[in-house]
Write a structure and sequence with these properties.
Number of domains: 2
Mean pLDDT: 79
Oligomer: single chain
Number of strands: 0
Order of helices and strands: HHHHHHHHHHHH
Distance between the termini: 35 Å
Shape: elongated
Helix content: over 70%
Low-confidence stretches: 254-259, 263-268
Radius of gyration: 24 Å
Length: 268
């Protein structure tokens, strides 16, 4: 990003933060608490304007609060507060799943899984829909972002599938594409709830429940508890997609070699 654009995005959060900090402290709040609120607003606005990546903004906010002593009165306690989040096992669980997800992307493993399933189940349009749902289900436990699964892995595969069908009134590749896109969207909504590591928000919910209700929900308990409902929802998703869009069901693409070339290109 050009330096001028970065500066233009950084100025508004800083100005707003300083303006809040210069306002007299409301009654009932300490000066440190009001300054912390000003820093919080600055961080939130910087995440929106994004002069630098959001993780850098968040880390800068934590470091700034610790250095200014806005949370704890002594430097030692401030350092402990700033580093306290890294002692949370859920943070390291998210980190490990992000590492696995990056490995999926670098090695194209997720894409190979999708292409293999499509090659096995793609003789009919409904089979391709099942392949998409199964691919999302296979990647969900290790990818804590439905955006990474859908947009980063599945979409690049399915966007080329309608082109394998010759445009004709019988095949209707546009309706096939709409069916596949809707199936992918609905499937990722279901799989995001089936595993605590499917999206980062699930882990946050687990932490909130543990802190407020003192109930620990493990990975296995979450999966076993939601699996009966999740599997039924996956089946209903395919049925709902078919009932809504009514895609044609040709027995096979008229250019099946495209799938084989894609599989071969991503094979090790």
């Amino acid at each position: 990003m050009p330096p001028r654009r970065t500066l233009a995005r950084a100025i508004p959060p800083i100005v707003v933060g300083f303006a809040i900090a210069l306002v007299p402290t409301p009654e009932g709040l300490s000066n440190a608490a009001w300054s912390y609120f000003a820093l919080f607003v600055t961080v939130m606005l910087a995440i929106i304007t994004e002069p630098v990546p959001a993780p850098v903004v968040g880390l800068a906010g934590v470091v700034g609060a610790a250095m200014l002593g806005l949370v704890q009165p002594t430097p030692a306690l401030s350092i402990n507060w700033a580093l306290g989040g890294f002692s949370n096992p859920l943070a390291w669980l998210i980190f490990s799943t992000v590492v696995l997800a990056s490995g999926y992307e670098k090695t194209a493993l997720g894409r190979r899984i999708a292409l293999r399933l499509i090659r096995r189940l793609g003789r009919r349009t409904l089979g391709i829909g099942y392949a998409i749902a199964l691919t999302d289900l296979a990647l969900a436990p290790f990818t804590p972002s439905n955006t990474a699964r859908s947009a980063g892995t599945i979409y690049p595969v399915i966007r080329n599938i309608p082109g394998l069908f010759d445009p004709s009134p019988e095949t209707q590749p546009r309706r096939i594409g709409a069916y596949l896109m809707y199936t992918a969207l609905a499937a990722t909504c279901v799989t995001s709830s089936m595993f605590p590591t499917a999206i980062a928000g699930n882990l946050l919910a687990v932490a909130i429940v543990a802190d407020t209700l003192h109930v620990d929900i493990g990975w296995r308990e979450w999966v076993i508890g939601f699996a009966p409902v999740g599997l039924v929802l996956l089946l209903l998703t395919r049925w709902r997609s078919t009932a809504s869009i009514r895609p044609p069901s040709p027995t096979r693409p008229t250019r099946p070699s495209g799938r084989r070339r894609s599989c071969a290109r991503w094979d090790p």
